[in-house]
Amino acid sequence: MSRVGNALIPVSDQVKVDVGSNNFVTVKGPKGELSVQVDPDLSIKMEDGVITVARPTDQKRHKAMHGLYRSLLNNMILGVTDGFKKELEVIGVGFRAAMTNGVLELALGFSHPIYFLPPEGVSIDVDTKRGKSTFIIVEGADKQMVGQVAAKIRALRPPEPYKGKGVRYSDEYVRRKAGKTAAR
To answer: Which domains, from first to last, does the chain contain?
Structure first.
């Protein structure tokens, strides 16, 4: 029994859901429009502001697809109403981040600055007013795209274990190591 797949998806009044032919689902809301091609074996019903996803059999593949597409549809509805957000923290002496003309400019200890152009549907903002470190805020309606952009920015200079310098998620714990000790 798929517990995730059996859960109902509530749809607010400000969201318009369109289930097209061949299970092509489009969700429109105040934050944008998202669409996904759902597996043709599954059936999707929209009744009284609630979406239900049903599977034809209890095969392992159908159970897996049931929970997956229910979660994808739920994330689409949450994305077009509230949006998703990831915060990254830039830590290190001389490490900086700034937005110039829609391009993220990073100084991460390399001999050159790194320029990152955000994809369509994702917005990036830089906050330097909180404490010593700089925060990069990645926002958008598509949960997968927001997470992917945040992961790409973090991968430019992941946090290192000795001093903790680098780009990390704001809620990430970096396990620190002891450095070398002087021999006597």
So the answer is: 3-81 (3.90.930.12), 84-169 (3.90.930.12)
Answer yes or no: are the C-beta atoms of 26 and 18 closer than 8 Å.
Answer: yes
Each residue's pLDDT tens digit, 21-65: 888 999 999 999 999 999 999 999 988 889 999 999 999 999 999
Q: Structure tokens of 105?
A: 């400019």
pTM above 0.85, yes or no: yes
pLDDT digits (tens, 9 = 90+) for 111-167: 999 999 999 999 999 998 777 779 999 999 999 999 999 999 999 999 999 999 999
Distance CA 111, CA 109 (A): 7
